[in-house]
Design goal:
Elements (H helix, E strand, L loop, with lengths): L1 H38 L1 H4 L2 H16 L35 E7 L2 E2 L2 H9 L3 H10 L7 E2 L3 E11 L10 E11 L16 H11 L1 H23 L21 H4 L4
Helix pairs in contact: 1-3, 1-7, 4-5
Length: 256
């Protein structure tokens, strides 16, 4: 009886591992879409572009691959089994599982920052900002700022519960372009993109090392659940490993 009482706890821990894995994947996909918008801005300016970026995000984030950024989707590897549906069908790669939305946002200075948040619900506040706030004096940036939102919904359980026990998560990443454009991708100056991301990667070295240790209990419980047959494909779990600070080689001209 004691072992049976532990089954709900084990299931809860495994589900927590899935939620954390999905959360990392959604954040990764949002950053990926934001990065693509900085180099493929025309795609982000059209509704059809969001569907294209969603298709690429499903393939690049939820399927293990070493393919370059612009490789065809057909070149990507199989779906991560941990994120697949209980029946073995594609989970994250299904068109309805992942959606992408790219919207222009406004960045206001001073008092307008406080007014902008409730302005959508209270139009008088937006009117007040336009009449007497910083927007009246041109202290409002309306160009070059977009937000990439990625939403994903996947089943947490297999078997008969796969269509009822689901989790939905979303992540937002700012896309800066135009007036917000970075100083440049390459060069000796410390503010250049390539140098800044290299410094950021060094700062995160300790954090990345600790990820494996934090996942050790979840991996052990997954192995146990797989051994007793309660979690399908438990051995296929891999936590999200994606260095968002690395500029892809085919984006800086170093790829063959």
């Amino acid at each position: 009886m004691a072992l049976l009482a532990l089954v709900p706890l084990l299931l809860a821990i495994v589900w927590l591992g899935k939620v954390v894995g999905l959360r990392q994947s959604v954040i990764q996909a949002s950053r990926l879409v934001a990065f693509e918008c900085t180099v493929r801005l025309p795609v982000c300016d059209h509704p059809e572009g969001a569907a294209l970026l969603a298709r690429e995000a499903r393939a690049r984030v939820f399927a293990p691959t070493d393919a370059p950024v612009r490789s065809p989707v057909a070149d990507y590897g199989p779906l991560d089994p941990f994120l697949a549906r209980g029946s073995g069908r594609a989970g994250a790669t299904a068109p309805e599982a992942v959606s992408v939305n790219i919207a222009a946002r406004r960045f206001d200075a001073g008092l307008n920052v406080a007014l902008a948040r409730p302005a959508d619900d209270l139009p008088p506040l937006a009117w007040l900002s336009a009449v007497a706030g910083p927007a009246r004096f041109g202290h409002e940036i309306t160009d070059g700022l977009r937000v990439a939102t990625v939403k994903a919904s996947l089943p947490l359980a297999g078997g008969p519960w796969r269509d009822t026990v689901r989790v939905s998560l979303s992540a937002d990443t700012a896309v800066l372009s135009g007036a917000w454009q970075a100083i440049g991708p390459r060069g000796a100056h410390p503010d250049h993109l390539e140098n800044r991301v290299r410094s950021g990667a060094q700062l995160h070295a300790v954090y990345e090392t600790a990820v494996g240790l934090r996942y050790a209990p979840v991996l052990g419980l997954l192995s146990l659940m797989g051994g007793i047959g309660l979690e399908p494909r438990a051995g296929g779990f891999r936590h999200g490993v994606f260095d968002v600070d690395v500029v892809p080689l085919d984006r800086i001209g170093s790829a063959p």
